[in-house]
Amino acid sequence: MALSLTPLTPGFVAEASGLDISRPLDEVSVRAIEKAMDDYAVLVFRDQPLDQDQQIRFAKYFGPLDLGLRKVKGGAHRFDYAELADISNVTADGAVAGREHAKIVGNIANQLWHSDSSFQRPRAKYSMLSAVVVPGHGGETEFADLRAAYDHLPADMKATIRDLKAVHYALHSRFLLGDTDYTEAQRQAIPAVQWPLVQTDPRSGRKILFVGIHACEVVGMTVAEGRMLLLDLLEHATQREFVYRHHWRVGDLVMWDNTATLHRGRRFDFGQRRELRRATTEEVQTSIEAAA
User: Which residues contact 10 (CB under 8 A, 6 or more apart)?
Assistant: First the structure.
């Protein structure tokens, strides 16, 4: 069967059907998914429950896998693969975490607008999040289109930010939430990187406003001035007209392009179990990365 797409919003997010992604895919199918990602930036695969082996196999079609913040904290892990991120409120022994547990800080940090691993080089390209257990209420994931956000910037702001770069740091969002219990080695485990605020996607040719909560400074500006600019740009990029909210069902897999979107989780009752499992690929080097 061939990939079939049903747009969920104009030009952003499509429901993908026609492929069984739990089984090996041929090259034609993989290329069709990549083309759909260029067009929509977010794909929703409904009723496709994956085990860990199947999710890893699917992710590897799209590039080398990313470890993200596991490079900083490591620690006990529930999964067979270190490359699978545990997006849950469940501890390593399978219990729902108490409100003071470090897992809850991670859940709250995920409620800030971000792109996965923008704080490293290479950064993340595609994330693939599989729903295993969902709460009865809340816990949705929202996605913001950074391509549309750039398109709708005023001309004077486009001119202001055209040549600016932002500093992205792995623990900036955690520090904002009061999560500061890190050794100096952990703080330096992923050095800060710089990315242009305005980028051009090498595949689609569309311009992107590359912002998010990991961006903490603007090169050439004072910290205060730079952070205010970043807050203004983030507010612009996450206006309702640029945002899609996904209501999870068990067996959903949502795939998104971290270089073209932001995402955040929404509030839910931390006493209810929520388990999602994420695989993420690294971006292959582009002219944007080489110049950064």
Answer: none
- Give strand ranges (E) for 169-237: 193-196, 198-200, 207-209, 215-218
Instruction: Give the percent of the chain with pLDDT over 70.
Output: 94
CATH number of the domain encompassing residue 162? 3.60.130.10
Residues 6 or more apart whose Cβ sits within 8 Å of residue 240: none
- CA-angle at 153, arms to 225 and 151, nearest 5°: 140
Average pLDDT, the chain: 94
| Pairing mode of beta strands 215-218, 4-7 | unpaired
User: Residue 196 sits in which domain range?
Assistant: 4-291
Cα–Cα distance between 228 and 217 in angstroms, integer?
9
Q: What are phi and psi of 240, to 5 degrees?
A: -55, -35
pLDDT range class, residue 66, cuts 50, 70, 90: very high
CA distance 164 to 8: 33
- The pLDDT of residue 289 is 47
**193: β partners:** 168
Query: In angstroms, rounded to a whole number, what is the distance separating the alpha carbons of residues 251 and 47?
Result: 5
* Chain mean position to CA 282: 12
pTM above 0.70, yes or no: yes
Locate 251 and state its tokens.
Answer: 């067996």
Domain count, the chain: 1
